[in-house]
Design goal:
The protein has helices spanning 14-26, 39-48, 65-74, 90-98, 113-180, 184-211, 221-230, 254-275, 312-322; strands at residues 5-10, 31-36, 53-56, 59-60, 63-64, 81-85, 103-106, 239-246, 279-287, 290-297, 326-331, 337-344. It folds into two domains: 5-130, Rossmann fold (3-Layer(aba) Sandwich); 216-347, Histidine kinase-like ATPase, C-terminal domain (Heat Shock Protein 90), CATH 3.30.565.10. It is elongated, with a radius of gyration of 32 Å. Strand 9 and strand 10 form a beta hairpin. The protein is an alpha/beta fold and 347 residues long. The protein is 52% helix and 20% strand. The strands form three sheets. A five-stranded parallel β-sheet has the order 2-1-3-6-7, sandwiched between helices. A five-stranded mixed β-sheet has the order 8-9-10-12-11, covered by helices on one side. A two-stranded antiparallel ribbon has the order 4-5.
Length: 347
């Protein structure tokens, strides 16, 4: 901080306020201090002076430190708040700390004050940095979500145009042929038309299933994963295996269940598109305080240290981090890939 530290001091005894000044100046701390003695001036200083840190005596006429702390937070100020008082019970000091005060200093031990101020400011900067990181993470999650949605729309468009539309066009052609004849040619054309219509319906069903997760209400996560594998397109030419022997009791958190389902869905699609794998396996297990989902394939693998432009793994990582989970990637060129997702379960 290049400018002097702005300190708001709630203190009704001028001698005590000056004593605090001397201790802070002796520590070489650069500061600008404003002293107030009552509630109206304290509130005005919060709004106009906008302090970096607040020091407060415990008891003032018709006002006390706990009320000052509550007003500080109600005003939206997150400035560190340090109680500086002559006497206070340990119970009261603990209650003020629980309400959000950074520290408390007894006036006969003011030599601790400079360190308490510095520590409070350091903690505040750390909290601000963590908040900034969370904001960046949320922004990344949003950007990834938008990219995933756009990618899904693009895939839907291609699927409708290149596949389902072609199947329906062929069905129409056979109907046109059937309309011109009244013999065996008509029968064959109608049979082919029926076959194409059935194929189009199956393609639409699979496309819909990839977009809409099954309602997991009343369905166990193990059952949902089994259904996902059973309905996986046969055209993928991928042998799938599911191991849920370590998942003995279904969890209650529907959000975590849906997240695991989507992760499995996303990674299976990644395997089909990029891994050139013949086999893939999903293992679901639950230990007392966390859920583990392992997805392995025997495909071509990749270097996890090398950044790629794909959004599949980024999508998975963001879904995991939303629930404070972890993602481990074990892969190398020619060695397949194993994802290990660990999500802590609410107590």
């Amino acid at each position: 901080m290049n400018r002097p530290l702005k300190i708001l001091h709630l203190e009704d005894l001028a001698a005590d306020a000056e004593m605090v000044d001397r201790v802070l100046r002796k520590s070489k701390l650069r500061f600008e201090k404003k002293v107030v003695i009552d509630k109206p001036d304290f509130l005005k200083a919060l709004r106009e002076f906008q302090p970096d840190i607040i020091l407060s005596d415990h008891s003032l006429p018709a006002f006390n430190s706990l009320e000052a702390l509550k007003i500080t937070r109600e005003e939206g100020s997150l400035s560190p708040f340090i109680l500086v008082t002559a006497t206070v019970s340990e119970e009261y000091a603990v209650s003020v700390i629980k309400e959000g005060a950074s520290d408390y200093i007894l006036k006969d031990r003011l030599e601790r004050l400079p360190n308490a101020v510095q520590n409070a400011l350091d903690r505040r900067r750390t909290e601000e940095e963590l908040a900034r990181q969370r904001e960046l993470q949320q922004k990344l999650v949003m950007e990834t979500s938008i990219q995933v949605q756009e990618k899904e729309r693009e895939q839907i468009g291609k699927e409708l145009h290149d596949n389902i539309n072609q199947i329906l066009a062929a069905a129409k052609l056979y109907l046109d042929i059937a309309a011109k004849y009244n013999d065996d040619t008509q029968t064959v054309a109608l049979q082919k038309c029926q076959r194409n219509l059935n194929l189009a319906m199956e393609e639409i069903r699979q496309l819909s299933q990839s977009l809409v997760a099954p309602s997991l209400g009343g369905m166990g996560l193990d059952q949902a994963l089994r259904k996902l594998l059973e309905n996986f397109p046969l055209s993928a030419s991928l042998k799938l295996n599911l191991d849920t022997t370590g998942y003995l009791e279904d969890i209650d958190n529907e959000g975590i269940k849906l997240t695991c389902y989507r992760i499995a869905q996303v990674q299976l699609n990644n395997i089909v598109k990029h891994a050139r794998a013949k086999n893939a396996a999903i293992k679901l297990e639950q230990v007392p305080d966390r859920l583990m989902l392992t997805i392995h394939d025997d495909g071509i693998g990749f270097n996890p240290e090398k950044k790629t432009g794909g959004i599949g793994l980024r999508n998975i990582r963001n879904r995991v981090s939303f629930y404070n989970g972890t993602l481990e990637i074990d892969s190398a060129p020619g060695r397949g890939c194993t994802l290990i997702i660990t999500i802590p379960l609410p107590g």
